[in-house]
Amino acid sequence: MQIKQKGKENFPRVCVIGAGPSGLAAIKNLQEQGVTDITVFEKNNQIGGNWVYDEKNNHSSVYETTHIISSKRWSEFEDFPMPAYYPDYPSHTLVLDYFRSYANHFDLIKYIRFNTNVLQVKHTDQHQWKVTFENNLGAHEEYFDYLLVANGHHWDPFMPEYPGEFSGKLLHSHQYKKASAFKGQRVLVVGGGNSACDIAVEVARVSPKTCISMRRGYHIFPKFVFGKPTDDAVAKIRWMPSWLRQKALSFFARILQGRYAKYKLMKPDCGPLEIHPTINTELLYFIRHGEIFPRPGITHFEGNRVHFTHGKSEEFDTVIFATGYKISFPFIDKQIADFSNSTKIPLYRKMMHPDYDNLYFIGLCQPQGCIWPLADYQSKIAARIIMGTLKRPDKLHEKAHEEMNKPHYRFKSHTRHAVEVDYHKFRRELLDMLEA
């Protein structure tokens, strides 16, 4: 094992974990603020994180037909717009091209060590981070003054457990790549979020029977409202008080789509801003055309038969769980950061650890919109604090506690919403820090 110590004290060594969208934003902002000693560890052989499509690579959760669910206007980095010829909702191929252009434009690749897996990070008595990593030459250790964790939170699949055993094929949406693999199969998709609805629609094109199981009601919005991308339309009412925005969105959804009961879907038991919204134009269309059949929650398995909460059961060949991801950082000591079962995250602005002033999480948020611009602002804050041009806030324990007790909305108390934020409110909060 090789060990490399830090550089000069006046030139901080900064480690970034991950070269996906959040990691790229972190590198760009560190470089922009004058940090020259930057090392980025990326376990794959290219940038892009989950936006790299590879049928043989289980790391990537993007599938063949993936498009972004937030429009390009609200997804692009502030200082690097997406090309004018991009559609409102670019495909994963265009998105990856965009990230490559971003990395080339700001000359970011030179900092990245590809095919390098971080095994452990440990805080030392010298107030540094000892990073143990592995590449094709073996295991190594290096020391850094600052650590930016930007590897994302959509990589460790959450698989619910049910009594009994299913004799067919069980998989997570993380493993799903293309619909053609399910041609001729009876498929049950479990979940009501964006991935679940997208996959159900795609599979229904080739499957003789596609059902979607939801334990509760979801707010489902089309991708376009009155000819505009939905997030564009929602942005126009961001000035409204929270309660009024909720009523306005519920009203428009009712006008556009009618009652959920008409689709044999459960009515949501909370407002549209209190759970993560589902953006899908085709699901309701497919349901009313008899291509997708809604089902309630699962009680248990019995051979190839799935039993549901309404007392009925059906046979399936494949069950796809689109049930989200655990917030997991296996390389960090659990005493420092263990959020896997948390319903709230004790990090100020979803990035600052109250006990470690040289540790920052970038992109650890789930906005009702796109993460990338918010990760950009978070990394600007971290970079400026590192270089001393922005003061780190005082009393972070109190601030983090207050933030947890006063979320933007009364989000459902569930690990699914542990890092949920309102896009526009959170953006304003981050900008206020930068403008202070």
UniProtKB/TrEMBL annotation:
InterPro entries in UniProt: FAD/NAD-bd_sf, Flavin_mOase, Flavin_mOase-like, FMO-like
Keywords per UniProt: Endoplasmic reticulum, FAD, Flavoprotein, Membrane, Monooxygenase, NADP, Oxidoreductase, Transmembrane, Transmembrane helix
Coiled coil (UniProt feature): none
Membrane topology: Single-pass membrane protein
A molecular-function term among this protein's GO annotations: flavin adenine dinucleotide binding
Subcellular location field: Endoplasmic reticulum membrane
Superkingdom of origin: Bacteria
SUPFAM superfamilies: FAD/NAD(P)-binding domain
Family, per entry: Belongs to the FMO family.
Protein name: Dimethylaniline monooxygenase
Organism: Legionella tucsonensis
